[in-house]
Amino acid sequence: MQAVSIRGRGLTIDPAGEEEAPAERVGRLVRESPVVIFARRGCYMTHVMKRLLAAVGAHATVIELDAGAAEDLAAAAEASGHGAVPALFVGGAPVGGLEGLMGLHLSGRLVPRLREVGALCA
After folding, report:
1. Which residues form the Glutaredoxin domain (predicted)?
2. Residue-level pLDDT, tens digit, the chain, 122 residues
3. Model pTM score
4. What is the Cα–Cα distance from 56 to 53, expressed in whole angstroms?
């Protein structure tokens, strides 16, 4: 993996210096944190997603990828189920992008889901 910035704790890009396939790496990173966003560096939609999550009391691990990490961008987009980044995962399950997050929020299912995966205090 190249050109990556991770904002979160306890995440490793390549454990013990081992190479992982992009899809395996995305799957592992999604499992390591209850709320993960894969995004392009400087993406305004990611900013909106982070603000909404923070407003309800959750803080996402944001993995910013630039154009040099094309394979990882493609793997994250494919895993998200909507084929694009930003790609949000809650409890290891794909939510989609900003539209998916807004849909969960407006339906009243976001906070219960975040609580279920341990991303919120009771």
Report:
1. 35-92
2. 333 444 444 444 555 566 777 788 888 888 989 999 988 888 899 999 999 999 999 999 998 887 667 677 777 777 777 778 899 999 999 999 999 999 999 999 999 999 999 998 65
3. 0.81
4. 5
